[in-house]
Amino acid sequence: MAGVCVPWSGEACRLFLPIRRRLPVYSTVVSLALPISSSMIVDDNLGSFLEILPRDLRHRLLNDSRRNQLVEVIMDLGRPPEARYLGEPGGQYLRNIEVSMEELEDAQELVGEFGADNRAGIEGTLHRISAIRNRKGFVVGLTCRVGRAVSGHIDMIYDLLHYGKSILFVGRYLLLLLATLCCFISHFFDGGGLNRVLDHRPGVGKTTVLREIARLLSDEFQKRVVIIDTSNEIGGDGDIPHSAIGGARRMQVPKPSLQHKVMTEAVENHMPQVIIVDEIGTEAEALACRSIAERGVMLIGTAHGEQLQNIIKNPTLSDLIGGIETVTLGDEEARARRSQKSILERKAPPTFYFLIEMRERDYWIAHQTEKSVDMLLRGRNPMVEVRKRDEEFKVVIERWKSYDGQGI
């Protein structure tokens, strides 16, 4: 049984061995501190972002004491421009004068070309500009979101990245970009590598995590990493990717509907050891993930969801966790299981070995996908690992917690 080496602040690694027990099972609590050398570095290229805004908005935001918490600026034709800040409900009008068509056209000239998904960027940055069009195709609204490259919390998953298999992240806490940087995933149960799917609702900050993982795997682990960047969110706009992804290579996708083809092309043409893909959402992409994983390539991906049960019930994405099929049991087997004759079972090994539910900014639930799926399909509560931060910013790990899908 493999142990896991977890770095403790100011000390050498301590080795934790997974414990296999029969019921009753008691949860174990371990408190971890980030190494003293850890620090969070934020690069937001805010100046480039403000350049696309009208001059009066630029001046106001430059002198705003909350500019470091700025999430996005909304510019809709015929309405006052609005700013939204991290951790604040709603938005705040930046002026009383309504946005004009000329201001929208000026902003469009300063950003890259809009793709089929109506998204564009500012070259050399991670900022994202999304357009709203009228029935004639003219832009009548812009959502200008600040993109920040944040590094310094990768220590939380450093040991997990050594394995080389799969993880799926699902999350319900709808904070934006910066809110999810900390307390990521960890070591888990017993050995075996890891493809990763970060599976959660939009806007949780998963893209920030992908950038940092790409940098770490390419620069420190010396892996051949290829990013499938459908909307240029991970590597930024322009032909030269942002430095936040380190030495990872980036393949751009002409249309979102072609993402699965570019994934396959990356494996066939460029011999990657790791593929990173954002927002797996179609059956073709799920099948491409399985094909890539079967070739021994490490996958790190994201998909929209809330909890493991959502992925199980989603016919499009269920293949990521092994797929679900109806099986008819014989009379003796049904009696032995004390179940109905027709039951649901997992039909194949999961594409992604682990699944992480991102419940809140500092509260995560870690599953071993195969075991948790099987237990849930049998109507039982799987054992999971809870990761959270205490008031001193230390990571507290609660192992072998019974999962009910709600209370933990």
Give a description of the structure.
This protein is α/β, with parallel strands linked by helices. It contains 9 helices and 23 strands. The chain has helices at residues 46-51, 55-62, 101-109, 206-220, 259-270, 283-294, 308-313, 331-337, 369-377; strands spanning 4-6, 14-16, 28-32, 41-43, 70-76, 82-85, 92-93, 119-121, 128-133, 139-145, 149-151, 166-171, 195-199, 225-229, 249-252, 274-277, 298-303, 324-328, 342-346, 354-360, 363-368, 383-389, 395-402. A hairpin with a 2-residue loop joins strand 20 (354-360) and strand 21. Pfam families: Spore_III_AA. It comes from Thlaspi arvense (Field penny-cress).
Topology overview:
Elements: E1 4-6, E2 14-16, E3 28-32, E4 41-43, H1 46-51, H2 55-62, E5 70-76, E6 82-85, E7 92-93, H3 101-109, E8 119-121, E9 128-133, E10 139-145, E11 149-151, E12 166-171, E13 195-199, H4 206-220, E14 225-229, E15 249-252, H5 259-270, E16 274-277, H6 283-294, E17 298-303, H7 308-313, E18 324-328, H8 331-337, E19 342-346, E20 354-360, E21 363-368, H9 369-377, E22 383-389, E23 395-402
Parallel strand pairs: 12-13, 12-20, 13-17, 14-15, 14-16, 16-17
Antiparallel strand pairs: 1-2, 3-23, 4-11, 5-6, 5-10, 6-7, 8-9, 9-10, 18-19, 20-21, 21-22, 22-23
Organism: Thlaspi arvense
Pfam families: Spore_III_AA
GO molecular function, one term: ATP binding
